[in-house]
Design goal:
- With 292 residues, the protein is an alpha/beta fold.
- The protein folds into three domains: 131 residues, Trna Endonuclease, Chain: A, domain 1; 77 residues, no CATH class; 76 residues, no CATH class.
- A five-stranded mixed sheet has the order 1-2-3-4-5, with helices on both faces.
Length: 292
């Protein structure tokens, strides 16, 4: 399950989510901006950086690391990345906080002796999702994070509950974002099922999903006639090709023809998968995994 990309999307949708996990969040959580950065020489990739508002200079910067696999060098890397970035941007920040999110304590690095002082510092926050409490009692966006850790047997029931709860608690636009996030999480959990099958599991329809809405909007803008299957498929194909070009570059003719041969359900699945693509190799790998 590709949890890094899920948490990246969660933090993009709701940067304040990180601060709901902390005991002492800053007073201006709504003003923070989520970003991801690279530190060169040597090059480090930091999962997430929460930058203070520009009018608060210097401000406190928050570094977030989501770790769902055992890594016995995690703390070496996290502290090296964070302090190096802080050092190189010292004039912008007055302080730093490090937040490490685990599914459970069993995933944490075993040998922590070199880092006792840092780990016991108020500047370091270790979050264990399985210790946050009943998923149904948590704030909605925090519950989405916990949903990534729920057993497959329980996941469908909890996902349906969160969808129903979002309809009661959130405005329409936020509700749509939550529908998309729940669907994405469940697609990653059940990789052997298509997105359409997952939507059926959750009791939602194609018309409620993000890719369908984008296709419909594209059709309106270009004056395309809606309502027929072949029309939706043509619009979906145009949108997917445009999105792929932005993600991986200009498509070779044979690749373009391959995309154009996909059915609507396959285009839906590709539309979700391409959000994680970094290059043409990812698209080739996606085609290799499909059974046409």
């Amino acid at each position: 399950m590709r949890r890094d990309s899920i948490f990246y999307k969660l933090f993009q949708q709701s940067p304040a989510l990180l601060f709901e996990l902390l005991t002492n969040p800053p007073a201006n959580v709504d003003e923070y901006r989520f970003d991801s950065v690279a530190v060169k020489e040597p090059k480090f990739e930091i999962d997430g950086v929460f930058l203070p508002p520009e009018n608060q200079n210097p401000g406190v910067v928050y570094f977030a690391e989501v770790q769902f696999q055992k890594d016995e060098r995690l703390y070496e890397r996290v502290f090296a990345e964070s302090y190096l970035y802080f050092y190189r941007n010292r004039d912008r920040f007055s302080d730093l906080q490090v937040v490490i999110i685990y599914p459970s304590r069993s995933i944490e690095q075993g040998d922590i002796r070199p880092y006792y002082s840092q780990l016991n510092s108020p500047q370091v926050n270790r979050i264990y999702l399985d210790e946050l409490g009943d998923i149904r009692q948590l704030p909605l966006w925090v519950a989405l994070m916990v949903l990534t850790t729920v057993d497959d047997e329980q996941a469908t029931e909890e996902a349906r509950y969160l969808l129903a709860r979002s309809q009661q608690e959130t405005p329409q636009l936020s509700n749509r974002a939550i529908i998309d996030m729940v669907t994405t999480i469940m697609v990653y959990k059940f990789e052997d099922k298509s997105r359409i099958e997952v939507e059926q599991m959750l009791g939602i329809t194609l018309k409620e999903t993000r890719v369908y809405r984008e296709i419909k909007e594209e059709g309106r803008e270009e004056g395309r006639e809606e309502g027929r299957e072949e029309g939706r498929e043509a619009e979906a194909c145009k949108l997917i090709i445009r999105l792929l070009t932005r993600r991986v570059g200009e498509l070779p003719q044979e690749v373009r023809q391959h995309v154009e041969s996909l059915e609507l359900e396959q285009l839906e699945n590709l539309g979700e998968a391409l959000l994680d693509f970094q290059g043409m190799a990812d698209l080739d790998a996606w085609f290799d995994r499909q059974s046409f």
